Amino acid sequence: MARTEKPVDIVLIGLGWTNSIIGMELADTGLTMVALERGENRDTVPDFAYPRMIDELTYGVRYKLMLPPAQNTVTMRHDPSGTALPYRSLGSFLPGIGVGGAGVHWNGHTWRPEEVEMRLKSYVTETFGAKTIPEGMAIQDYPVSYDELEPYFDQFEKMAGISGKAGNINGQIQPGGNPFEGPRSSEYPNPPLKGTYNCRLFEKAASEMGFHPFPLPAANASQAYTNPYGMTLGPCNYCGFCERFGCINYSKSSPQTCILPALKKKSNFSIRTKCEVIRIDLDKDKTRATGVTYVDEHGEEVFQPADLVISGAYSYHNVRLLMLSGIGEIYDPAKKTGTLGRNYAYQMTGGYSLFFKDKTFNPFVGTGSNAVSMMDYGVGQIDFGKEGFIGGSIITSAQYNGQPIRSLDLPAGSPAWGSGWKKAAHEWYGHSMSIASHGSNMSYDTCYFDLDPTYTDAYGQPLLRMTFDWKPNDIRMTQFMKAKIEPIAKSLSPDSLKASFKTENSHYDLRPYQTTHNVGGAIMGADPKTSVLNRYLQTWDVHNVFVMGASAFPQNLQFNPTGLVGALTYWAARAIREDYLKDPRPLVQA
Amino acid sequence: MSKKSEFLPSRRGLLKATATTAAAVALASRGGSALAASPPAVDLKSYAPVSFDADEWRFLLAACDRLIPDDDTGPGALAANVPVFIDRQMSGDFGHARDWYMKGPFAKDASPLLGYQSPLTPAEVYHLGIKDADAYCRDTFGKPFAELAPEQRDQVLAGLDKGELKLPNVDGKAFFTFLLQNTKEGFFADPIHGGNKHMIGWAMLGFPGARGAYLEWVDQDNVPYPLGPVSLSGERR
Ligand SMILES: Cc1cc2nc3c(=O)[nH]c(=O)nc-3n(C[C@H](O)[C@H](O)[C@H](O)COP(=O)(O)OP(=O)(O)OC[C@H]3O[C@@H](n4cnc5c(N)ncnc54)[C@H](O)[C@@H]3O)c2cc1C
Ligand code: SF4
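Structure tokens for the assembled complex are given below, as produced in the milestone run.
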């Protein structure tokens, strides 16, 4: 029999980026809020303190800040007829755990989507004709536009102190910025980071070929900055231990540096760590949540009554919780029924490594977003009718870290061990740079989540099952990027060039790290027949359950997700605060 | 040639530096590898392994010695105490797969694309892999692996690497993959983990270790960074 806790007004599931924002934005309502986080508490000091934090083996290779699969994982198969097997050891993506979530150890690339990405299906249909969309592709429009979200992108960027250069302020194109971005209401809160040598080489090469390079918008502060919550970031010192690490320096924007110390001062807000929510509880006619059930650190089951439940458990963990709670109908591709679990999508990436005998890059000088990008082959810049695919990429030269276990890049054909490997490692370490593409991934009828019939977690609950593979449309997209990057790379006359792009024979490989940009599964939309959430991230079926995170994306952007995730969170927070709490009900009539 | 050769006086005494920048010259004048505040590192010869028995330990040393040999490029895995690193890893979370999802059922013949699917922990893979590979060497060469000539050891390792040498009780390729990955980790991980003795691995590359502050180096194009590595415990070279 579960112990019952004192009721609260609002319960937050998970305390990563999204629910830290929700906590702060709802704190002034005076309502009581408790955040249940399955990991431990984490603060810059002592948890990320120098020098202990900058240990490549512990955090970069053994993933000690991430969710151990032993605690929870997914199963994976390539197609609906296969048998899924557990993602037993981490590789392709690295879910976060603990206070701050993956916001602790992200890179900080902070993008806004292109305007057309928010209304992708309509854009493709209107511009290129409905038949451009291949059979089995499941793309949809977001039920909210770029223009509607603009103030919330702005709010997220100011909270996180993003360093960048605007390309379009109120329709005026700005030199040095991204001319293809949607109009923004103001400049970035901080000037761009100064890039490393590779950034200058790429910028020059791309400009000379007529492209429009610009500094990648970074959540690594270029100068001291105090955000609207009164939190201060210090200038990044390019420590080279950014992605997969907590920031030693109060420079990377994270819940810890931008929100939590201010939030923890609010007397109506509290945090309970090592508490894993196992379901959202519903009343008997399944139209209202009564609270959540969690297992505390002593293994005791606890019922936490609440009037409002906000899940910010990370993209696919949200999806699983909804499934375990019976909120929404689980998608079945054969019967074409259900919406929950539909439209899982990932990120299509590729890249070239350029090796130079006579150039030294000091690759250990880096930050998570030290990069120059171009969007000349972005989603809105490509003729899908002519090229035969839907999608686009940002093309970037970055330098994040020179950590030798995971970032020692050698020319093609170098031996993997022995004296030959040693010689190559000695000769080439520090002599390479990359030009990479980071691209969209469309959604498909056969890429989705449901519950695994075989594998369970420690509480005997089914693991989430992922069915996913690369599809020809997205392979054509990445091959197009390869053809576009190659001449830029060659114009720099490297001594050797190494390509890694997916080809028509590629199947999704769970082993190498790709991105932690898992999206979809509980998507937002205008119609409950094809979505789980309405435009305010409220579940269609249970109006006092809201779901934050990239689970809402109907397909993946060409960008890293958190810029849009953050803006949608602010947008939903406003709707909850100013509308829902005054009159709790479905905010959109189905 | 970058400054990194400065850090590479190999056992054969080959110093191949051709310093081209002021910074590199300044560095050379610091004189070889002055080890300031070095905490005493373990001596491999007298080290008593906790995860391996005597035969396994001889195998491990002989294998690490071929994966990262001592040669003209500089000292290798044994000089860097890589086997000590592996021994410690095997007794920790990694060796016991404590962070991994290890519940069954375990599929045989799973697609490699789905990642690790064996019920064996890395430590178990090492034990079985060493036993089987040693048995193979005795059958084929009449001696255990550790007593083979370097070329023969390379041949056995290459057979495992390519998946051509099949072992009866464990996937030989999976064993080799752990062995190689952990050997490189032991060469490049911070010395607190037992390997990378006196930051030999970092010196080979020119990686400055745990310095973690490079703001003034961001816009110095094509200038080799002049300072040697420091470790988490404050060792410098
Ligand atoms: C290595 C890495 C690099 C990245 N780089 C970038 C980047 O450059 N740009 C970008 O845009 N994005 C990046 N991301 C993604 C970014 O971190 C996420 O988009 C962002 O953190 C998502 O916020 P969230 O609140 O949805 O989830 P998280 O920040 O992950 O927070 C979710 C929290 O919920 C908790 N939780 C989950 N389930 C439960 C449960 N059942 N009960 C209680 N608590 C639970 C988790 O422990 C976690 O703390 C990166 C991610 C990783 C891992
Ligand atoms: S690179 Fe900068 S932002 Fe990233 S962890 Fe280091 S100091 Fe922090």
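Chain A has one domain: 3-580. The mean pLDDT of chain A is 98. Further analysis is deferred to the final report.
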